[in-house]
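Batch manifest, entry 17 of 40.
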Amino acid sequence: MQSRSPVVSLLASLLLIACAPEEDDDVALRGVLITGGNSGGGTVFNTHALDDQVFSELEPLGQPHIGPGLDSVSLAGNIEVLQVAEEAGELVGFDWLGHKYSGEALLGSQWIISFQSGLLEIPMFLLGITDGGGVPHYQFYHPQGDVEMPNCPEGQDGPGHARVLSGLSVDEDNGEVSEVPGLLYLACDTGATGKAADLGYYDLAKSKEDLELFETAIRVLRADYCYDGDSHTKPGVELVLEDRWGIHGSSEEHAKNAVEAVWGPSGLLCHGKGRLTDIDCLSKRKVPDCEKGTSFATYPDGLFITRLP
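Output type: structure tokens
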């Protein structure tokens, strides 16, 4: 597998600030920092919203629901969709005859999302599809007065895009990712979940049938050192990312950079200094310091190594 650049900038992906933090704490933000739930005060899980209703996950079309639900999908020509799903990253719909719709056939479709057990209904429209790294990314908009507002806030390159994930739920209180068949997750590329997917870890987790891998990738991006859902970074902070599968491999350029942490499936295996402050939330676990020359050979159970730029 080809190894990509290991440098990951939250400047370029997780909400969009003008420059990485320096000595001045009042770094100017470009964009709006929102989330579908608890973010721990740092980098958020997701940024998807309709008006002031924030949500990420949709139950299967037409199913009873307590939280946000997908009540109907209508295509151009008044074609009613009875089922929507994700297939290899692509959003697909099926009508009552079993005809399949995808790609341009979905453009202009109206999606009715209901909240508060159906007491509030808000339409959203699929108005754009782009090819992001070989996987479709979708631009949903909703009316706000006479203006069409993007569901995903703007990033560096304009309105954000949502990647459609399926079969999983993200608990934003503790960061755990669990399997929920039939559930769709609209992951904006301006949030940590969408960024982890764009970096290749959603597809890897699905291929290995190991959602814990994807969960750990999200924790890495959010600097969730204690694996408790709390983020210890903020948008714009850069890090150097390596993984044991070679999707983002090591490089001579950054090999001597200080190791922030080695990330295992259930906790840090060693740690150095954090992205913003010392990592001081590990008092209940004896986590050693990362020694000079730390690598995956040093920690064979490690999934990710992060280094400070």
